[in-house]
Write a structure and sequence with these properties.
By secondary structure, the protein is an all-alpha fold. It has helices spanning 2-33, 40-58, 60-86, 91-113, 140-162, 164-174, 176-181, 186-212, 218-233, 238-257, 262-268, 280-283, 287-290, 294-305; strands spanning 129-133, 136-139. Strands 1-2 form a two-stranded antiparallel ribbon.
Length: 316
């Protein structure tokens, strides 16, 4: 039991912080520009594939640096020559634009790298066990993922709340005209924020690719969960995204690890349910089978009882 709890906590923390790496860029873009970028998960996928290609020639570590920069520049160009012109037509046009961009990126990835999973492996330097407990090991690469995620959270929090750049960004959210009158290039700030948000998505792809697999479907796997994270945490709240990511990571990891059915639950309550009755299929459903849909169940509850999310100030 202790082994289950400890390793579920660790794996939930790793998965949750991976979600935060992806959600942080989306949260930054939304808090600054009010744009829910449907292509964010596809940009995450693009980062993984670019890093894979770079790793084939110069190794994992250069790809860790170069791929997010390339993806960030791509995001900045998308904002400058695409999203900026669509912005004047409202949020619906922005959503349609980013939705179409997601399809374009997916088709581009399949055209260049094919439809099969590519062999993007973790670096040999981190290919060892960080520690062993109860006969199970915890990979060093997962520890590296934890460190990178925490560093991103602390770095973003410091920049947005303690630096001059953060003050300009926060001021441009609510008073763009005043910021422009003070001599700051507000469109350039917007482009930079979108580029940084895209770079964070690319970094998440670089980190997650060796663990979750680098395939054209990787955006579909994590994309919907990321939107659950930012809604549960609160739209535009970095702290909310961090807390919601950990919460959802733990929820899914513990759920998958628990093989406990409704029939067993009713039995512990002293209720004798007929396993061959009309609802037999429902009785045999386990918590592990419900694990993948639990984040969406949490989303529904949040939307009903707290539409602003855990730390948000605006309703969905």
């Amino acid at each position: 039991m202790a082994e289950l709890i400890i390793f579920s906590l660790l794996n939930g923390l790793v998965y949750g912080l991976l979600l935060f790496m992806l959600a942080s860029g989306l949260t930054l873009i939304f808090s600054m520009m009010g744009v829910l970028n449907f292509a964010h998960a596809s940009i995450y996928m693009l980062g993984a594939y670019i890093a894979y290609t770079i790793s084939q020639y110069v190794g994992f570590w250069p790809g860790l640096i170069i791929a997010p920069i390339v993806v960030g520049l791509f995001g900045a160009l998308v904002e400058r020559y695409g999203l900026r012109h669509v912005h004047k037509y409202g949020h619906v046009a922005e959503l349609i634009f980013t939705f179409g961009l997601a399809f374009l990126i997916e088709e581009f990835v399949q055209l260049i790298w094919g439809k099969q999973t590519v062999a993007y492996a973790q670096p040999e330097l981190l290919d060892f066990s960080l520690f062993e407990m109860y006969g199970s090991t915890f990979p060093a690469y997962r520890g590296f993922m934890l460190l990178v995620s925490v560093a991103i959270f602390v770095g973003l929090l410091v920049v947005l709340t303690r630096s001059r750049v953060g003050l300009i960004i926060n001021a441009a959210i609510t008073h763009p005209n005043m910021v422009a009158m003070l001599g700051h290039n507000v469109p350039l700030v917007f482009m930079g924020v979108f580029g940084v948000g895209s770079a964070l998505a690319g970094l998440a792809g670089v980190i997650a690719g060796p663990v979750l697999g680098t395939a054209p479907g990787m955006a579909v796997v994590l994309g919907p969960i990321v939107f659950v994270v930012i809604v549960v945490g609160g739209l535009g709240s970095l702290v909310g995204a961090f807390v919601a990511s950990i919460l959802i990571g733990m929820l899914q990891t513990f759920a998958v690890a628990v093989d406990y059915s409704f029939l067993q639950f009713f039995g512990h309550l002293g209720l004798d349910m007929d396993p061959d009755g009309a609802l037999s299929d429902l009785y045999t459903v386990t918590i592990a089978q419900l694990g993948p849909i639990m984040p969406y169940m949490l989303l529904v509850l949040i939307l009903i009882f707290r539409p602003t999310g855990l730390f948000g100030t605006r309703e969905v």
